Amino acid sequence: MSVVGIDIISKRGERRKYLPLEMRMKMYEDVVELGKQGLKHEEIQRRIYKKYGMRLPQPTISVWINGKHNPYEKINKFNEKPSPELAYIIGVIFSDGYKYLNNGAYLIWLAVNDEEYAREFGRCLARVLEKKGHYEPFYNEKQKQWIVAVNSVLLFKFLEKPFEELKFYIEYSEETVASFLRAMFDGDGCIHTKIKEGRKQRILVLTNTNEKLLVYIQYLLKKYFSIEATGPHLSARKNSIRHFPNGKISKTTKDYYYIYIRAKTLLNFYNHIGFTIKQKQQKLIEAIE
Fold it and tell me: Fewer beta carbons under 10 A from the terminal one: N or C of the chain?
């Protein structure tokens, strides 16, 4: 028995072999609720037709109500319980990661230079999507980057929650806060050397286009780990030329802001947060020494 609504008939009499997953999920919720009200299959079919313009086959209605099948069966499972892995994924999405729809696929994607960063993201994805092992990154020779990509409508929808709701998952525990911050600094943080009064100073800098996000990160650093960070400071105006530590140059499409962590609290950062990326972690150790 199909769980996707084969031979659903539209008001125009058109046959549609498959409906978009999101619509099937909405239909399913309505069918189950109407079934709990004791309505007969014919009446449920009529109401679904009136609401969605599609005539759902009665056998599909029957197996949905009886719990034999549902539209979620072929979707990646998603464990929404707060965890360090989920907090890390949220942090990645707010730094280097992104999500987009592609021909009905709900893709969560990361393309970066550092293999350790990609592997950690793959590990966290596997944990929250309840997969055995890891999502292994692959190296794109053309882009010269490590890439991790998954298709998960449930995780995609979760990551579209308003930021105020995501804060619950970030601040669930000290461990989840540290994991979120580690993801942000893995993506947007670096040890920067500057000259002040003829002396070299190494500072930890975090750059992002979202000024309010940086203010929130300052709050987390201070509240949970007694780490002081100055700013946010404007680092580059929209349409200006920006120079990156790796030598790349690009024209900005947004304003860029940064915060930096005071030298006296770098040890706290190392002890409680740190970097996943080995090269950045080594530079952090050198800055502390």
Answer: C
